[in-house]
Design goal:
Layout: H1 3-24, H2 43-46, E1 56-59, E2 66-68, E3 72-77, E4 79-81, E5 85-88, E6 94-100, E7 103-106, E8 112-116, E9 119-126, E10 128-132, E11 146-150, E12 153-158, E13 161-166, E14 169-173, E15 176-179, E16 183-188, E17 193-195, E18 198-201, E19 205-210, E20 215-217, E21 227-230, E22 234-239, E23 242-246, E24 249-252, E25 256-261, E26 263-267, E27 269-272, E28 276-281, E29 284-288, E30 298-310, E31 316-320, E32 323-334, E33 337-341, E34 345-347, E35 351-354, E36 357-359
Parallel strand pairs: 1-3, 2-5, 3-6, 4-7, 5-8, 6-9, 7-10, 8-11, 9-12, 10-13, 11-14, 12-15, 13-16, 14-17, 15-18, 16-19, 17-20, 18-21, 19-22, 20-23, 21-24, 22-25, 23-26, 24-27, 25-28, 26-29, 27-30, 28-30, 29-31, 30-32, 31-33, 32-34, 32-35
Antiparallel strand pairs: 35-36
């Protein structure tokens, strides 16, 4: 054998080994959660009622802005138009706004604006409604684009219902956004709920109608961030684009999720550790794409019940630019192309149902065209209905 031929074989063998290592890199500790709940929420985050013993109360009036500059608890009441509550506290200050039956409609600026603080709490104690109807105005170099708009960590909690309506985004945090209680009905022309570093949901009810994404987490400066964590709650999302979008990770540990959108869930690493998830999508139901340099694209399912019903055409029920790992749970996919992956597939436990038939391997449509039945928007067990679904990192 010529020396050049030996070299060529060695190069090819090395390339194959590197490829295998790349596609298995994130499966070595399969089953371990990426994020732990106890590290994501403080005790105060999880408390649904504010301590009002030293609270200050403001009654809102038309055109009369309110400026809060110190740590404390502030109760907001009344109905008004064109009012902004500014939070301009110190970098170590925690400010809690309690919405006590508030109704505000603005034309072109946020109703609640967290300009500075360590953390801003918005606690819904009585049913309230906030809206912005026109084109948002900028605040200097800041492009304000949400009815609730915060540059600092934002925590939403409470015991009542908050209705948000927006001509752009609904609720925005330029840092981390946490939801631990209350009910949120958000209708937005763009994104319903958006954050830079992370969206963390412990509990609550979210009814989201979005022109683009229902939940969107993205940090343009650091692609290791921009993750979504869901540890409970009831989510009903109707989205013009993605139901849930994370740059790095989407981790779902518990809760009930009903999603209708172009894509259901999209991130680089998608880990489902428990929950009931029902997805109707016209593109990809669950999509692990290359958006973060920190992870190999992977869909990992460790428990729960996942039902995906796909529209007809060039669509994939569960699509990964890398790997698919199923360790447990029930995965029920109806569509023309049910699974599509570029890396490897591991079926270690649980149940997989493809177009009504239980299977013992994960099919791959990547090389074999679009075989299978045409599921269209036709439902299995009634569209939103499904079997039970999701766990890992």
């Amino acid at each position: 054998m010529k020396q050049t031929t030996k070299k060529w074989i060695a190069i090819c063998a090395a390339a194959m080994l590197m490829s295998a290592a790349f596609f298995s890199a994130t499966s070595a500790d399969s089953g371990s959660p990426v994020y732990n709940t106890e590290e994501l929420f403080s005790n105060r985050d999880l408390k649904q009622e504010a301590d009002l013993s030293e609270a200050t109360t403001y009654t809102l009036s038309d055109g009369q802005d309110i400026h809060i500059t110190a740590e404390g608890v502030y109760v907001l009441t009344g109905s008004a138009t064109d009012v902004t509550v500014y939070v301009e506290a110190g970098d170590e200050d925690k400010v809690q706004l309690v919405l006590d039956g508030v109704s505000v409609t603005n034309t072109d600026f946020p109703v609640l604006y967290g300009k500075s603080a360590d953390k801003l709490f918005v606690t819904v104690s009585k049913d309230s409604a906030l809206a912005v109807t026109g084109t948002f105005a900028s605040d200097g170099d800041t492009n304000t684009d949400g009815v609730i708009f915060s540059k600092c960590d934002l925590v939403l909690n409470g015991t009542a219902t908050l209705t948000v309506s927006s001509s752009d985004n609904g609720i925005v945090s330029k840092d981390t956004l946490k939801i631990t209680g209350a009910t949120y009905s958000v209708t937005a022309a763009s994104k319903a709920i958006e954050a830079n570093d992370s969206i963390r949901i412990a509990d609550g009810t979210l009814i989201l109608t979005a022109g683009t994404d229902g939940l969107h987490a993205e940090n343009s400066d650091d692609d290791t961030l921009g993750y979504v964590y869901i540890g409970g709650g009831n989510l009903m999302i109707t989205a013009g684009d993605d139901g849930i979008h994370g740059t790095s990770v989407v981790q779902i540990d518990d809760g009930t999720l009903n999603i209708k959108g172009t894509e259901g869930i999209e991130a680089t690493y998608i880990q489902i550790n428990g929950s009931t998830i029902n997805i109707q999508a016209s593109d990809d139901g669950i999509n692990a794409a290359r958006k973060s340099s920190a992870y190999t694209p992977t869909v990992e399912i460790n428990g729960g019940a996942i039902t995906v019903v796909m529209g007809a055409g060039d669509t994939d029920g569960i699509d990964s630019n890398g790997n698919i790992i199923v360790n447990d749970g029930t995965v029920n996919v109806t569509g023309t192309s049910t699974f599509d992956y570029d890396g490897t597939a591991q079926f270690n436990g649980g149940t997989i149902i493809v177009n009504g038939q239980q299977v013992d391997t994960i099919p791959n449509q990547m090389m074999g065209g679009r075989g299978g039945q045409s599921g269209g928007w036709g439902t299995q067990n009634g569209g939103w209905g499904g079997q039970s679904g999701g766990h890992r990192r």
